[in-house]
User: Which sequence fits this backbone?
């Protein structure tokens, strides 16, 4: 720790169970379920985040005397998979030059490109101090780097003040402008986009499917069995490695209760598709999706439109539907910045990455501005709407 903060000490913990849930959650707050003790412990207790998957917990706890005043979800990583903020080129360059990029430290929610707080501190604690402490821990462990991905802008700025390198990214979020119904939302779109969404929904709902929005105790082992088949099928097609175990999903609904929202589609009583979401205080967060069979526009219906309906019904401000996907724009999900920060110990690699990020940030900003021009929403004075 810096000399100016002599009363603060940082400890690392290989199991989140070493940090009392009440202490962790007092730092994390209630708003974002992905940084709750319940969610992170479900990942560990289910065997999803461990040495086998290359996500070895090294959670940080900052103490003032004997009181925990801040915590950080952190992992020692032996690879760069499951992060969604790509640093493979940095690793390759460093290792070509004779360095060892792995293991590294990752401040993140495993397998989840969900923006949210990463420096979880009680009121009155300067999060910049956490940035200094994590950088010092990285050095004392002899590791190459520590990375905070999908953090809040406030965390990003605090880490920047602590000397970390700053990176921008993009996701697509739907925002609730006080809509009372889905039709209210449709009324804000241009005529062409509104008609396209209506057509997609009509075709999806004309396929003989029934739709369920299940929460907490409503989700039975039968539903989880079906969803796990969808999840592994999707992973096998796209990535080839299923991090989340079968045990994880029932643990999730057991520990997070009504915050777990499982959208299911059934055909003649048999589940054919599912979309897993978590509900926070302000947003519905889309996580995993999977499907068996070929159903027109089912992905859009289950993952985007049903999520919007749920957010409207429950007064949530946003739907965050995961990483990537410029196709989301025409369905009302607009580009929004995401933030990550990176501490790199090696001076040469640090300079190279800093130069890259200095040129990448304005390019990302320009790209978001160009994407915003594709907005499906009616402009003021648009007589065609």
Assistant:
């Amino acid at each position: 720790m810096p000399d100016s903060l002599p009363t603060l000490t940082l400890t690392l913990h290989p199991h989140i169970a070493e940090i009392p849930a009440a202490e962790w959650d007092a730092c994390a707050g209630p708003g974002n379920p992905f940084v709750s003790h319940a969610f992170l412990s479900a990942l560990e207790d289910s065997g999803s985040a461990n040495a086998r998957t290359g996500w070895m917990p090294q959670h940080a706890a900052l103490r003032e005397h004997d009181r925990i005043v801040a915590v950080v979800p952190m992992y020692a990583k032996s690879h760069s998979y499951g992060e969604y903020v790509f640093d493979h080129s940095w690793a390759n360059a460093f290792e070509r030059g004779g360095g060892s990029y792995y293991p590294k430290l990752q401040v993140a929610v495993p397998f989840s490109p969900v923006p949210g707080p990463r420096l979880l501190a009680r009121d009155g604690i300067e999060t910049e101090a956490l940035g200094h402490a994590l950088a010092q821990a990285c050095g004392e462990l002899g590791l190459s780097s520590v990375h905070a991905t999908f953090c809040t802008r406030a965390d990003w700025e605090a880490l920047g003040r602590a000397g970390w390198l700053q990176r921008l990214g993009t996701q697509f979020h739907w925002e609730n402008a006080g809509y009372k119904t889905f039709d209210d939302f449709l009324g804000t779109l241009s005529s062409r986009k509104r008609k396209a969404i209506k057509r997609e929904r009509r075709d999806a709902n004309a396929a003989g499917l029934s739709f369920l929005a299940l929460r907490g105790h409503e989700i039975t082992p039968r539903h989880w069995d079906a969803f796990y088949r969808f999840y592994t099928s999707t992973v096998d097609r796209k990535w080839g490695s299923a991090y989340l175990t079968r045990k994880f999903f029932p643990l999730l609904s057991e520990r997070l209760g009504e915050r777990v929202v499982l959208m299911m589609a059934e055909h003649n009583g048999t589940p054919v598709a599912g979309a897993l979401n978590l509900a926070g205080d302000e947003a519905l967060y889309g996580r995993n999706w999977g499907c068996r069979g070929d159903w027109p526009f089912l992905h859009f219906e289950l993952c985007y439109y049903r999520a919007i309906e749920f957010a409207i019904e429950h007064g949530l401000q946003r739907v965050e539907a995961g990483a990537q996907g410029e196709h989301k724009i025409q369905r009302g999900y607009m580009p929004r910045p995401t933030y990550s920060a990176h501490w790199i110990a090696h001076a040469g690699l640090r300079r190279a990455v800093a130069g890259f990020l200095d040129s990448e940030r304005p390019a990302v900003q320009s790209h978001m501005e160009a994407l915003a021009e594709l907005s499906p929403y009616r402009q003021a004075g648009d007589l065609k709407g």
Observations:
- The first strand starts at residue 8 and ends at 13.
- Residues 46 and 248 are 5 Å apart (CA to CA).
- The two ends are 58 Å apart (CA to CA).
- DSSP finds eleven helices and 15 strands in the chain.
